[in-house]
Amino acid sequence: MTLLSVSGLQKSFGGVVAARDVEFTVARGEMLAVIGPNGAGKSTVFNMVGGQLRPDRGRVLLDGHDITHASPQKRFRRGVGRTFQVAQTFLSMSAAENIQMALISCRRQSGGLWSPARERHREKAVQLLARVGMAEAADVPCSALAYGDVKRVELAIALAGEPKLLLMDEPTAGMAPRERTELMDLTASIADTQGIGVLFTEHDMDVVFGHAARVLVLLRGRIIAAGAPDEIRRNEEVKRAYLGDEHALERPKGARPA
Amino acid sequence: MVKISAIRWLALGAVLALGAPAVHAQQAPIKIGELNSYARQAAFTVPYRNGWQLALDEINAKGGVLGRKIEIVSREDGATTGDATRVADELVTREGAILLFGSFLSNVGVAMADYANQKKIVYIAAEPLTDAITMAQGNRYTFRIRPNNTMQVGMLVDQAKASGAKRWAIVAPNYEYGQSAAQAFKRLIQERVPGAQIVVEQYPALGKIEAGATVSAIEQAKPDGIFNVLFGPDLTQFVREGNTRGLFEGATVLSLLTGEPEWLLPLKDEVPEGWTVTGYPWDQITEPKHKAFVDAYRAKYNDTPRLGSLLGYMVVYMIRDAVERAGSTDTEAIIKALEDAKFDTVIGPVTMRGIDNQSSMGAWVGKLVLKGAAGGMADWAYKDGTSFMPTEAEVKAVRKD
Amino acid sequence: MLALDPSFLAVQALSGLSSASSLFIAACGLTIVFGVTRIVNFAHGSLYMIGAYTAATLIPRLLDLSFGPMTFWAGILASALIVGLIGVIIEVLLLRRIYGAPELFQLLATFGVVLVVQDLVVQVFGPEDILGPRAPGLRAPVEILGRRFPSYELVLIAAGPVVLGLVWLLLRRTRFGVLVRAATQDRDMVASLGVNQAMLFTGTLFLGAFLAGLGGALQIPRVSAHTGMDLSIIAEAFVVTVVGGMGSVPGAFLAALIIGQLQAFGILIVPKSTLVVVFLLMAVVLAIRPYGFFGRAEVVGGSHAVGIASRKPLPGRFAMLLAVVAGLACLPLVADAYLLKVATEILIFALFAFSLQLLIGVGGVVSFGHAAFFGLGAYGAALAVKWFGLSMEAALPAGLALAALGAGLIGAFVVRLSGIYLAMMTLAAAQILFAVAFQWVEVTGGDNGIVGVWPAGWAGGPVPYYLLTAALTVVAVLLLRRIIDAPFGYALRAARDSEARAEAIGLTIRRHRWLAFMIAGAAAGLAGGLYAFSRGSVDPSLLGISTSVDALTMLLLGGIQTVMGPLAGAAVLHALRDWVMPLTSLWRLMLGLSIIAMVLIFPRGLVGTVRDWWEARE
After folding, report:
1. Which of C17, C45, C279, C369 could be stapled to C430 by a disulfide with Cβ–Cβ 3.0 to 4.6 Å?
2. Residue B65: which domain range?
3. Which among C64, C62, C66 is positioned nearest to C74, based on CA atoms?
């Protein structure tokens, strides 16, 4: 059931090695978190999977297809959807049009010169918005939405491509704590029902330990630990890596819904 | 002058009384359209505007023509062919101008000639010099006052014969005027000076000369004669650079228009002495009529006249005469009154030749000298244009009408 | 034969070095100002011109005081200082207000300054060229390998490296310099350091203007101060800064060296190629290194998200469309010949501006050389008439095709770039075409252009030609509108709003933009062809910077956030020009001031302002 398989990934900038021998897999329906202190190489790894960076060495396989050197556009067609650390939506369009745009692109209709875009795939778009709880806001310009809502729209855009793998770069950055949980619960339920593999990076340990099935810890470009959240929390090397922030790995206070 | 005007007045009165009883002295003025590059070519066109304004004021003070005052509606032509025809269209269709005159750059003149032909309106080119206006692109609606390139170059080439120079360099601005003058020079020097050859040609873009590189490229070909068509800022740079590098030492230099005050004054004391030029030694011309013009001009503007001033002044008087003789503002009548007509101007009689609509106005040819802190012309003579005009056969060979 | 003479080659190389030096001094202020403020200052050439005029007027008076030859150099410095102060005034009054504005607005605002200065210079210094004095003691030439070479040129050759050295010292050894370099690297960082940013920017403008003034003043012994200096130097200074990498002083020096030599030797090989060579160099360098020799990728700010946004379709828009079409069709019943001519030109410019809207308002691609396609359309039509004897009916599509082809070719280069480099590359492309039209005399007629491009007999009168233009314009505008609303237009907007998001949903941004260039180019080409037949002639000015600026001004005037803005902008600008230009000789001053006022006060344009007001009322 392996969806994404990354092996021997390596990348250096000038003399600085940002990622070294990175290997991991993501299964369908699985949520895998990548954590690590600042500068550990999270973004580098993430962008090599997303297609924004070319690895120096190693392979990235999606569903058995080699996508190591594919452009972001090709990866999208292979089933990779993603969200960005700072939400990237089309601010000049309404929420529904954002989704419609993704649907249009997905069906390779973006070269259409004649019939209006706003009439295409409208129903499907509203359905997708409904799934992230944004159906009411379908006709609201994206520029007028609260940031938390923009993040939801962005998730719906990513889902419009019917992805097999969802990449989420710091999905909850810039959101209020309650919004964070809601968004990640939503993501988890979608991933679960549709069998989408989710790879995400995150600073908020509540989010990581509350939602990830497995956690990958990066330090100076290397994976120093990988496993279930509880194993990671006990791992001495990980604790040392987070030295100076001893409470970072403590179990979140209060119960949380599973 | 007063006497002539009085006679004209009487004649006019007779015309009014006999031919046009409905015409009153208080009628709307006759509108004449004028367009020129006042922004880009101010050195020439501003004195030129002063010149036609002076003539206009004189004429209107004496009652105008056909019992009506003349009004000149003047416009900026933007120094491009497109803007010029646009402005011309405005002058004709909105202002109701009965004829058009003006424009400075030769390419604009050619476009205006084409416009005149298309819209069937008289256009009098005052300054543009390219042969095309009265030759290949000529038409029955287009007239020219100033001696054209072939005529002025012809006058200069005559002076070159004696010098014995055989290896010639040409430097000219890369647009219609420069190309046309260079072509005329190549033709005439080879016709009239046996054994003459062109050893180097340089065509810097108008207003964008790289003087140092141009001078050394000419120097490299070791010419003993140089034919210059540059004017304005290009000329200034070329002269400075050439003086410094000794380009002109021992070479015969023929230069179009450089003796005209508009191009001579900016050179100040760096005037290249000994150049043979066409120009306008206004302070040395002693004919009383011309002197009267100079005095009137200086009194009105507190400035000395340029060639542009003279031209503007002459053109308006010639238009006045033509309209008067035509007896109406009708285009066909004006054409008839212009073709093969003789005009009595401040520089003497001038004839408008009918086959190519080129006037016989001549030019002053002489040598540049330094007088005090500024340049002037010496050993000059006025060459009437008649004997330098293209022959009838030449005209008929290229004109389409 | 020419190449075999070493002394000649040496002198030619020295000439090239001295122009390189002059060019570097003129351009390095531009690159420093860009580095700190991120503004491409069109008015830099105007400052250079003011420097030359000031020096040519001031120095003779100083020399009259007879304090010896040092007064000449003191006069040069004084002129540069005066220009520096003018730079400060421009910064305080204008630039300070537009640092955050989109690039397009900045370019236009500084171009407004260019127009204002052009008229003011004539008012202050008079219309005639002013020949400055020569440097005392440097009148005589020196002998180099048996050839004479002007000694002042040697001074200039030395001046370039001296200025480079001093600027280097200033940037390395002073606190101001440290801040300038820091700002060039990362503007936000300087803001967060608690530095007085206003003072830093004002100081930078002073330095930039001082260098421009110095460059101009140093030219007076070679060149008379004249009114065309600003635009001729700014085009080359742009090339120097872009080729060197924007913000990089050593890059500018290297670029100036190359250009100086190219010009000195280019004139020998192809005497008429001078204009093309410079811009070809820029095109080649940008094609290989998209950020010049030493430039770095720009951190793209939020400035891209300016343009058309989705709106609900207005109710009754078909009725409105019908009313407009009926109004256009009935105009000949009431208008005289001249009014029809004006209306014809307004329609043509409306189409031209509208085609640019597809690139800028929809695609976020700031093309600063849209005249290229307008001119290609006009030249295509005119050449078809002149060389192939085609009728108007065949020549118009020929012009359109040539423009689309040109847009395809230019677009292929340009879509690889972004931001200011893209704007400069489109400008360079238009300038190359301008130079070709200007200097390839045998085919294009050079500066003369091509005359005799009149419409076919049936369309010859003002009424038929107006109706033809109206019909074609309406059809073209409706087609473009359709495209803007279609998925293709949305995809362009998507790429404008967020490139990362557009890529992540599989949009091939470059291909879309490339196609947009061709569509916009074809529409502009149709406008150009119609214009050629309306005027009966074409000339290189159709490809010039001012034609591009016209289109941008119409766009800005109407409002780049509205679909119909450019149409209103074209009508207003053209009507104003037609009405005001005959009344005043200070047209450029007025136009310049209005452009500046629009940028500062009505950045949303006429249609945008009216719409906002309307929506606020509801």
Report:
1. C369
2. 2-148+285-351
3. C62
- Mean pLDDT of all residues belonging to chain C: 87
Return the CA Rg of chain A: 19
Sheet holding B167-171, edge to edge: B197-202, B167-171, B225-228, B252-259, B276-279, B363-371, B374-383
Q: Given an 8 Å threshold on Cβ–Cβ distance, is C507 in contact with A157?
A: no
Cβ of C310 within 8 Å of Cβ of A97? The answer is yes
Model confidence pLDDT, tens digit, residues A43-58: 888 889 988 888 999 9
Please tell me if residue C124 touches chain B, with a CB cutoff of 8 Å. no
H-state helical runs in A5-57: 42-50
B193 and B298 in a single domain? The answer is no
- A182 occurs within a structural domain: no
pLDDT top residue among A253 and C118: C118
For B69-124, what is each residue's pLDDT tens digit?
A: 999 999 888 888 888 888 898 899 889 999 999 999 988 999 999 999 989 999 99
A94 touches chain C (CB under 8 A): yes
Residue of B81, B139, B175 best to disrupt the C interface, most CBs of C under 10 A: B81
Residue C122: closest C-alpha in chain B:
B39
Q: Which amino acid is at A3?
A: L
Q: What domain count does chain A have?
A: 2
Predicted confidence at residue B3, as pLDDT, reads 46
Beta-carbon separation of C505 and A113 below 8 A: no
SS3 state of residue A19: strand
The reply to whether residue C449 touches residue B86, judged by beta carbons under 8 angstroms, is no
Instruction: Determine B/A contact with 3+ CB pairs under 8 A as the test.
Output: no
Q: Is residue B356 part of a domain?
A: no
Say how many C-beta atoms besides its own lie within 10 A of residue B396's C-beta: 11
ipTM score? 0.90
CA angle C241, C243, C246 (to 5 degrees): 45
Exposure string (b/e) for B339-375, b if CB count within 10 Å is 16 or more?
eebebebbbeebbbbebbbbbbbbbbbbbbebeeeeb
Q: Give me the residue spans of the domains in chain C.
A: 7-227, 327-617
- Sequential DSSP letters for B4-46: HHHHHHHHHHHHHHHH-TT--TTSPPEEEEEEE-TTTTHHHHH
Sheet strands side by side (includes A57-62) = A16-27, A2-13, A57-62, A65-66
A93 and A141 share one domain:
yes
- Min mean pLDDT across A82-96, B206-220, C75-89 is at B206-220
Chain C: give the shortest CA distance to residue B281, in Å.
Answer: 20
Residues B115 and B185 in one domain: no
**How far apart, in whole angstroms, are the C-alpha atoms of residue C482 and residue C477?**
8
Size of interface A-C (CB pairs under 8 A): 112
| Cβ contacts from B onto C, under 8 A | 184
C341 has a chain B CB within 8 A of its CB: yes
Same domain, A73 and A87: no
Q: Which CATH architecture has domain C327-617?
A: Orthogonal Bundle (1.10)
Task: Say how far apart CA C112 and CA B333 lie, in whole Å.
Answer: 48
Residue A250 has pLDDT above 80, yes or no: no
Is B193 among the domain residues?
A: yes
For the segment C435-459, the average pLDDT, to the nearest whole number, is 85
Rounded Cα distance between C163 and C144, Å, is 25
* Residue whose tokens read 């109406």: B328
Whether residues C507 and A110 touch (CB distance < 8 A) is answered with yes
CATH number at residue A155: 3.40.50.300
Assess if residue A39 is contained within a domain.
Answer: yes
Q: Which of A72, A81, A109 sits opposite C503 (nearest CB)?
A: A72
- Do the chains contact at C535 and B82, CB–CB below 8 Å? yes
User: Number of structural domains, chain B?
Assistant: 2
Based on the fold, state whether residues A69 and A88 are members of the same structural domain.
no
Question: Quick one: A64 and A92 in the same domain?
Answer: no
Q: Same domain for A151 and A94?
A: yes
